[in-house]
Automatic annotation (TrEMBL):
Localization per record: Cytoplasm; Peroxisome
Protein name per the record: Mevalonate kinase
GO molecular function, a single term: mevalonate kinase activity
Catalysed transformations (reactions): (R)-mevalonate + ATP = (R)-5-phosphomevalonate + ADP + H(+)
Organism: Gorilla gorilla gorilla (Western lowland gorilla)
Enzyme class: transferase
């Protein structure tokens, strides 16, 4: 068991193209978002395991000796396993959460306990730890906040228990794990996601683990070899959406108008494939004309998504505001509100960007400038922090 403090971060995600079409067997492109979740793991000797999630007001502590005395044989030792409904019920008993506990808190705590007990039970004794997790990602906005949480937990616990080696070398500010360790992190993070979402696709945790851009098609996930980091505006309309209802609406529209909707889904698939091709070219030799193609693809996909019935007046307003400034936007995720992305071409003057952000904020939206294609899960030095991590720590 390692004795040093560990600082880990992992990115969120956005869907670039392929929303809804992916449900019907088409290709989707997901990219990492340079808004990150941070985790600090600190071993101590007070006999407690503490979990603090300041973003959502959660602070929980368990007695390690009590956890050690519990029958945790319901957790398979060894390989990464899928949590069963029986395991979930027993974890609820272990967690000791009140009946009126908020859903967000219950799911976050259950995911933590599942990963802590499953990964750490190979130790001679369960470790006494203080874990704090905080995030730049708004929860419930379709930006992969729960996946980034699970990835950070898996990476920190596996490293602390020496299941994988700490990749930081002397003088490093930040580093990443080798491929085989990332695969193990991703497997465990997926189980954390299952505790939270039941039956996730695995896309969110894969993007958070590997970073860059991923292609998802009929259950198969693969990384794009070269993916440029693109500057974007991320706008949260703050309009809540019901993903299940939106997916069902597209399915019903397909059944009602198959000869109209099926070609739309095929066209969205072609947009994803063309975007994949262009991103590959940009990774080798970026050129201004490639941004023009990306903008055209954004516009076409947004029109298709509106035709599928997953648009919203707030998203139309977002597109109108940015179009008036020569910028191109589309929804990301389920639609019906939620978030949208706006591509920022190189050379765009900062006053123009700030004016656009201000115009979107005046609509009642939250808007910030960030990038996509960020690195996946990373470990940071506790002694030579980069400004991003230090700022996050200072905010606790």
């Amino acid at each position: 068991m390692l004795s040093e403090v560990l600082l880990v971060s992992a990115p969120g995600k956005v869907i670039l193209h392929g929303e809804h079409a992916v449900v019907h067997g088409k290709v989707a492109l997901a990219v990492s978002l340079n808004l990150r979740t941070f985790l600090r793991l600190q071993p101590h000797s007070n006999g407690k395991v503490d979990l603090s999630l300041p973003n959502i007001g959660i602070k929980r502590a368990w007695d390690v000796a009590r956890l050690q005395s519990l029958d945790t044989s319901f957790l398979e030792q060894g390989d990464v396993t899928t949590p069963t409904s029986e395991q979930v019920e027993k974890l609820k008993e272990v967690a000791g959460l009140p009946d009126d506990c908020a859903v967000t808190e219950r799911l976050a705590v259950l995911a933590f306990l599942y990963l802590y007990l499953s990964i750490c039970r190979k130790q001679r004794a369960l470790p006494s730890l203080d874990i704090v997790v905080w995030s730049e990602l708004p929860p419930g906005a379709g930006l992969g906040s729960s996946a980034a949480y699970s990835v950070c937990l898996a990476a920190a616990l596996l490293t602390a228990c020496e299941e994988i080696a700490n990749p930081l070398k002397d003088g490093d500010c930040v580093n990443r794990w080798p491929k085989e360790d990332l695969e193990l992190i991703n497997k465990w993070a997926f189980q954390g996601e299952r505790m939270i979402h039941g039956n996730p696709s695995g896309v969110d945790n894969a993007v958070s683990t590997w970073g860059g851009a991923l292609r998802y098609h009929q259950g198969k996930i693969s990384s794009l070899k070269r993916s440029p980091a693109l500057q974007i505006l991320l706008t949260n309309t703050k309009v809540p959406r019901n993903t299940r209802a939106l997916v069902a609406g597209v399915r019903n529209r397909l059944l009602k108008f198959p000869e109209i909707v099926a070609p739309l889904l095929t066209s969205i698939d072609a947009i994803s494939l063309e975007c994949e091709r262009v991103l590959g070219e940009m990774g080798e030799a970026p050129a201004p004309e490639q941004y023009v193609v990306l903008e055209e693809l954004i516009d076409m996909n947004q029109h298709h998504l509106n035709a599928l019935g997953v648009g919203h007046a707030s998203l139309d307003q977002l597109c109108q505001v940015t179009r008036a400034r020569g910028l191109h936007s589309k929804l990301t995720g389920a639609g019906g509100g939620g978030c949208g992305i706006t591509l920022l071409k190189p050379g765009l003057e900062q006053p123009e960007v700030e004016a656009t952000k201000q115009a979107l904020t005046s609509c009642g939206f939250d808007c910030l400038e960030t990038s996509i294609g960020a690195p996946g899960v990373s470990i940071h030095s506790a002694t030579s922090l980069d400004s991003r991590v230090q700022q996050a720590l200072d905010g606790l």
